[in-house]
User: Which sequence fits this backbone?
Protein backbone atom coordinates (compact mmCIF):
# COMPACT_ATOMS: atom_id res chain seq x y z
CA UNK A 1 0.00 0.00 0.00
CA UNK A 2 1.00 3.64 -0.43
CA UNK A 3 0.29 6.62 1.83
CA UNK A 4 0.57 10.31 1.01
CA UNK A 5 2.34 11.82 3.99
CA UNK A 6 2.74 15.54 3.30
CA UNK A 7 2.29 18.36 0.86
CA UNK A 8 4.57 21.33 0.24
CA UNK A 9 8.27 21.78 -0.28
CA UNK A 10 9.40 19.00 2.01
CA UNK A 11 8.52 16.22 4.41
CA UNK A 12 6.16 17.22 7.21
CA UNK A 13 2.50 16.72 8.17
CA UNK A 14 0.67 13.40 7.85
CA UNK A 15 -2.52 13.31 5.75
CA UNK A 16 -3.26 9.57 6.06
CA UNK A 17 -4.63 9.10 2.53
CA UNK A 18 -3.94 5.52 1.63
CA UNK A 19 -3.33 4.09 -1.81
CA UNK A 20 -3.62 0.52 -3.00
CA UNK A 21 -1.11 -1.44 -5.05
CA UNK A 22 -2.68 -2.48 -8.34
CA UNK A 23 -1.47 -4.84 -11.04
CA UNK A 24 -1.10 -3.93 -14.70
CA UNK A 25 1.42 -2.09 -16.83
CA UNK A 26 -0.27 1.29 -17.48
CA UNK A 27 -1.73 3.78 -15.02
CA UNK A 28 -4.31 5.51 -17.23
CA UNK A 29 -7.00 6.77 -14.85
CA UNK A 30 -6.67 9.85 -12.61
CA UNK A 31 -5.36 8.77 -9.23
CA UNK A 32 -3.44 5.76 -10.56
CA UNK A 33 0.31 6.33 -10.75
CA UNK A 34 3.31 4.23 -11.61
CA UNK A 35 5.75 5.01 -8.80
CA UNK A 36 9.30 4.99 -10.13
CA UNK A 37 12.56 5.64 -8.26
CA UNK A 38 14.44 8.28 -10.27
CA UNK A 39 17.91 7.71 -8.83
CA UNK A 40 20.21 5.38 -10.76
CA UNK A 41 19.42 2.66 -11.48
CA UNK A 42 15.80 3.73 -12.10
CA UNK A 43 13.26 1.08 -11.18
CA UNK A 44 9.50 0.85 -10.92
CA UNK A 45 7.86 0.13 -7.56
CA UNK A 46 4.53 -0.68 -9.21
CA UNK A 47 1.20 1.05 -9.85
CA UNK A 48 -0.57 2.62 -6.86
CA UNK A 49 -3.85 4.45 -6.29
CA UNK A 50 -3.00 7.86 -4.81
CA UNK A 51 -4.93 11.15 -4.67
CA UNK A 52 -5.20 12.66 -8.18
CA UNK A 53 -3.75 15.96 -6.92
CA UNK A 54 -0.43 14.42 -5.78
CA UNK A 55 2.30 17.02 -6.47
CA UNK A 56 6.05 17.51 -6.44
CA UNK A 57 7.46 17.81 -2.94
CA UNK A 58 4.89 15.50 -1.34
CA UNK A 59 6.16 12.67 0.80
CA UNK A 60 4.63 9.25 0.16
CA UNK A 61 5.11 5.91 1.90
CA UNK A 62 5.25 2.90 -0.40
CA UNK A 63 5.54 -0.59 1.09
CA UNK A 64 7.00 0.79 4.33
CA UNK A 65 9.64 3.04 2.70
CA UNK A 66 9.38 6.84 2.56
CA UNK A 67 9.85 8.76 -0.71
CA UNK A 68 9.57 12.38 -1.90
CA UNK A 69 7.87 13.06 -5.25
CA UNK A 70 10.33 14.89 -7.53
CA UNK A 71 8.43 14.77 -10.85
CA UNK A 72 4.83 14.15 -11.91
CA UNK A 73 4.54 12.88 -15.51
CA UNK A 74 1.17 12.75 -17.30
CA UNK A 75 1.48 11.29 -20.81
CA UNK A 76 -1.24 11.86 -23.41
CA UNK A 77 -1.85 10.25 -26.81
CA UNK A 78 -3.82 11.68 -29.74
CA UNK A 79 -6.75 9.36 -30.57
CA UNK A 80 -9.61 10.30 -32.87
CA UNK A 81 -8.73 13.99 -32.81
CA UNK A 82 -8.67 14.12 -28.98
CA UNK A 83 -5.89 13.77 -26.46
CA UNK A 84 -6.45 10.83 -24.13
CA UNK A 85 -4.44 10.16 -20.99
CA UNK A 86 -2.04 7.32 -21.74
CA UNK A 87 0.05 6.95 -18.56
CA UNK A 88 0.64 8.61 -15.17
CA UNK A 89 3.99 8.36 -13.41
CA UNK A 90 5.50 9.73 -10.20
CA UNK A 91 9.27 9.90 -10.09
CA UNK A 92 10.44 9.73 -6.49
CA UNK A 93 13.61 9.78 -4.43
CA UNK A 94 14.11 8.14 -1.04
CA UNK A 95 13.55 10.80 1.65
CA UNK A 96 17.14 10.55 2.95
CA UNK A 97 18.58 11.03 -0.53
CA UNK A 98 16.22 13.98 -1.18
CA UNK A 99 17.36 15.70 2.05
CA UNK A 100 21.06 15.21 1.16
CA UNK A 101 20.42 16.64 -2.34
CA UNK A 102 18.65 19.67 -0.81
CA UNK A 103 21.61 20.33 1.52
CA UNK A 104 24.10 19.98 -1.34
CA UNK A 105 22.05 22.36 -3.52
CA UNK A 106 22.04 24.90 -0.68
CA UNK A 107 25.84 24.61 -0.38
CA UNK A 108 26.30 25.12 -4.12
CA UNK A 109 24.04 28.18 -4.11
CA UNK A 110 25.61 29.70 -0.97
CA UNK A 111 27.83 32.72 -1.45
CA UNK A 112 31.40 32.70 -0.18
CA UNK A 113 31.84 35.54 2.31
CA UNK A 114 35.52 35.05 3.11
CA UNK A 115 38.44 37.41 2.61
CA UNK A 116 39.12 38.61 -0.92
CA UNK A 117 42.31 39.71 -2.56
CA UNK A 118 45.89 38.81 -1.74
CA UNK A 119 46.49 36.70 1.37
CA UNK A 120 49.57 37.03 3.61
Assistant:
Amino acid sequence: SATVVSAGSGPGKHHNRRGLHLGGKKAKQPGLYEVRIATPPPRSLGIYALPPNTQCGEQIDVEGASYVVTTVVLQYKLRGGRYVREHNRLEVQPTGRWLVNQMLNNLVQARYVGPTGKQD
User: Anything to note?
Assistant: The chain has one helix and eight strands. The chain has one domain: 2-109. The chain has a mean pLDDT of 80.
